[in-house]
Amino acid sequence: MKCPRCNTENNDNSRFCGNCAAPLGPGAGAGPEGASVTRTLETPLHVLKPGSLIAGKYRIVEEVGAGGMGIVYKAEDLKLKRAVALKFLPPHLMDAPELKERFLIEAQAAAALSHPNICVIHEVGESEGRPYIAMEYVEGETLRDKVKKGPLDPGEAVSLVDQVAAGLGEAHGKGIIHRDVKSANIMVTAKGRAKVMDFGLAKLRGGSSLTKSQTTLGTVAYMSPEQARGDDLDQRTDIWSLGVVLYELLAGKLPFQGDRDQTVIYSILHKEPESLIKIRPSLAPELDHVVGQALSKKQADRYRTMEEFRDDLAAIAEGLKPLKARPRPDQPENSIAVLPFINDSPDQENTYFINGVMEEILNNLQKIKALRVISRTSVEQYRERKKPLREIAEELGVNYILEGSGQKYGTAFKLRAQLIMAAKETHLWGDSFQRKISNVEDIFDVQAKIAESVAVALKAVISPEEKRLIEKLPTDDLGAYDAFLKGKFAAYKTAPEDLDAAIQYFEQAKERDPGFALAYAGIGLVWLIRQQFGITSPDEAGPQLMDAIGRALELDSTLAEVQFMLANMNVFGMWDWEGGESAYKKALEINPNHADAHGLYSLLLITLGRPEEAMEHVELALKLDPHNPMIRVWYSAALLFVRRYDDCISVGRDVLEKNPSLFGVLDQVKDALHLMGRCEEALEASRLYYSNLYKDFDNVFDQYERLGYAGTLNLEADTLMEQSKFKYVCPNDVATLYIHAGNKERALDCLEQAYEKRDSNIVYTGVRSVFAILSDEPRYQELLHKLRLPTGDKKLEDAS
Questions:
Q1: In this structure, what are the phi and psi dihedrals at residue 161, rounded to the nearest 5 degrees?
Q2: What's the structural domain count of the chain?
Q3: Are the beta carbons of 399 and 388 closer than 8 angstroms?
Q4: 70 and 184 belong to one structural domain
Q5: Are residues 369 and 424 in the same domain?
Q6: Are 126 and 147 in a shared domain?
């Protein structure tokens, strides 16, 4: 189903667009739709009067509730002299066989369950052609009504949700998924027992789905992302919904809100809820941690079962102690950010020195496998400290902050550092160091001691090898190291002028210390980027890249940065996949927090047909360096390669909006738009990409009205071919244009040229879906064979 607003393709059974959250299906364009907290399907209700006799044995007392799938009454069982709840299918739905069947499915599903936290089903019957379910009447109030009075005490909230999880766990064990867990469907008795009600949307695993096209069942505010998209569901959809309930009980409000249904859906799909710690600072961080895992947007990152969920709830119930269960996959317990140190020196020219100290402390912490350490790129923006530490930690996704300040005066320096638990702003460790600088070892000794002290405070074990790496000197010249860091930062901006500046910084570092291996690795990085972005031909860039990396390896092959660049040279320069993977792994063994290595290794893994591993690495890279735009460029590419086109476009456009110089991200955005059939948008993305890369290109796109989409792309490609006669043009770029235009033969000619000229971008040929139309072409298969890449398109099926 195509979205009427943004033209994104969606599953046929989706009610909302997975890209923009616009409503889908009949009436989608009829106007705004009010947000719903408790609505499943709107239905006019027929009310029975008190005193009405049902099936000769139930007397209606009063109406107690109504929902999309039925009306509920309190009634008296005249035979057994007990109160019961009677639920009727609304009369106007009786002629809808699928809804009547779903109503009875509720009874069959729930009647098969016997658990103290599930409402008991007594009987299924029919009265005057209207099916009903007679069930246990629960005296009490719903959790929805309870939380309207205000947030619950954490202990009470945990206890009630644990009971609900126990009941749902019983249902899951019998193959039954509730699919409509919400606070309004959970009753609490006067004695504090929680009971799950309304299995009206229950689905038996392995049975036929009763969900019809364009109808995603379930209450909007509690829907899991996969339910909102209309995807297949398993028990983890109930875990998400119960996580929403727990959040609601603790915060006094829902995690995803909006004045329209589509606003709520968009938040569920794309936004993170406000931190519980921010709403209630007194809450234990472990409780926020548990809710966060239940509300992980990726099913794989959630609790797998209700039993796992209950394990962590039990750990919290024991006096809100630290969790006994495993740490949340995307938020390890020991996560830390090292903020830029403040220069308190009278002479601000000494800032480079304080920066160098901070950088080396961060670098040392990154070598400790027991820690997750945010990279420098992402912490640099907090140099001015314009936000509270708690807010900074939340934005970076860490539990701890290390901050410090220093002074340098003459041949001496003083350094202060402190470790803070961010959620409570609790001081965990701090120390002050004062040294005379007789040699560089005096400085690095302090840096190593700070890193080791932080590890001790966080109970993070340091292996002997990690200790050796921490105490090893990368250079005896802090100025050289500072120049290296400036060069790396400039290189990742990727614009030609930034790459020129980066080379100057790396050359400066090399001149200050001819034995500085990292400086040579940085020079190699610049030549690699120039080659990949088509700024420099492989003939010119290749020898420069190999010389720089060869020299770095001679100087020190045990540095993570050197192994990282060796991996890049092997992959993009030598097309040596095994050598590339080996070097990436070595880099990550030395520095498990190396965000860049995780990011580029992910693209190699996709190329080799291992998309699940790949996405784990690139998502970890995002967590290690969340504000690094280049990693988001790689993430956009990974999303394209695993066919998550709408996500690829969203990430790519966000990168470009915040970093206009990173126009290279348009390469994957235009592919994704083309593959989704959004031709005019794809053409505009092409115009921006090629005009920035090759200049003087706008006039080509002015021919669209005359030539149409394919004709304009053909002209674009032909123009680049003419330009290639007097300057370097990336053959892979031209091949992509021809393939978008449907010109297979010319595309194959350009791909073969890319192979002959050793165009580094040919690495991704086998996983770029735009080339899938060549899969039956012998020339294409021969090219993949020569590159030793997996042939065919099977390798992406599990990721799509």
A1: -70, -35
A2: 4
A3: no
A4: no
A5: yes
A6: no
pLDDT of residue 743: 94
What CATH number does residue 105 fall under?
A: 3.30.200.20
Both structure tokens of 777? 């072409």
Closest CA to 106 of 217, 203, 216, 24: 203
The DSSP secondary structure of 647-666, one letter per residue, reads HHHHHHHHHHHH-TT-GGGH
Pairing of β 372-373 and β 335-338: parallel
What distances in angstroms separate CA 246 from CA 239, 287, 330, one per listed residue? 10, 10, 20
Beta bridge pairs of residue 204: 176
Q: Angle, to 10 degrees, between the axis of helix 645-658 and the axis of helix 666-675?
A: 150
**What torsion, rounded to 10 degrees, do the Cα atoms 769, 594, 274, 257 define?**
0
Beta bridge partners of 132: 88, 125
State both tokens at 395: 């934005």
Q: Tell me, what's the pLDDT at 747?
A: 95
Regarding whether 296 and 341 lie in a shared domain, the answer is no
For residues 78-117, one letter each, b for 16 or more C-beta atoms within 10 angstroms of the residue's C-beta and e for the rest, the string is eeeeeebbbbbbbeebeeeeebeebbebbbebbbebebeb
Task: Give the H/E segment covering residue 404.
Answer: strand 400-409
273-289-397-663 Cα dihedral, nearest 10 degrees: -50
Q: CA 714 from chain center: how many Å?
A: 37
Tell me: do 152 and 298 sit in the same domain.
Answer: yes
Cβ contact 671:768 at 8 Å: yes
Same domain, 209 and 285: yes
347 domain residue, yes or no = yes
Q: Specify the CATH number for the domain of residue 425.
A: 3.40.50.10610
Q: Strand, coil or helix: what is 104?
A: helix
Q: Which residues of the chain are under the pLDDT cut of 70?
A: 1, 5-7, 12-23, 25-47, 67-70, 90-97, 99-100, 102-103, 105-107, 109-110, 200-218, 318-333, 347-350, 352, 437-441, 492, 696-701, 791-800
Q: Find, among 37, 117, 141, 140, the residue nearest to 306 by Cα.
A: 117
pTM of structure: 0.57
3-state helix, strand, coil in the chain (%, to 5): 50, 15, 35
Domain span at residue 254 reads 142-317
Q: What is the pLDDT of residue 698?
A: 61
Backbone angles phi, psi at 232, to 5 degrees: -65, 145
What's the one-letter identity of residue 352? Y
Alpha helices in 183-332 (DSSP H): 225-228, 236-251, 261-270, 276-279, 285-294, 306-317
CA distance 621 to 686: 28
Q: Give Cα separations from 394 to 140, 342, 565 (angstroms).
A: 38, 21, 32
DSSP 141-206: EEHHHHHTT-PPPHHHHHHHHHHHHHHHHHHHHTTEE-S---GGGEEE-TTS-EEE---TT-EETT
Q: Which residue has the tokens 């006067």?
A: 190
In a domain, 107, yes or no: yes
Q: What is the largest CA-CA distance in the chain?
A: 100
pLDDT for res 735: 94
CA distance 767 to 741: 19
CA distance 296 to 581: 30
CA distance to 156, 183, 184, 194, 258, per residue, from 148 (Å)? 15, 11, 11, 17, 18
One DSSP character per residue, 740-798 reads HTT-HHHHHHHHHHHHHTT-GGGGGGGG-GGGGGGTT-HHHHHHHHHHTPPPSSGGGGG
The amino acid occupying position 368 is I
Query: Residue 236's pLDDT is what?
Result: 94
Distance CA 440, CA 591 (A): 23
Claim to verify: residue 761 and residue 740 sit in the same structural domain = yes
Query: Which CA distances in Å does 247 have to 182, 253, 273, 288?
Result: 11, 8, 9, 9
Look at residue 396 and tell me if it is in a domain: yes
Q: Which residue has the tokens 């999303």?
A: 639
Are both 256 and 346 inside the same structural domain?
A: no
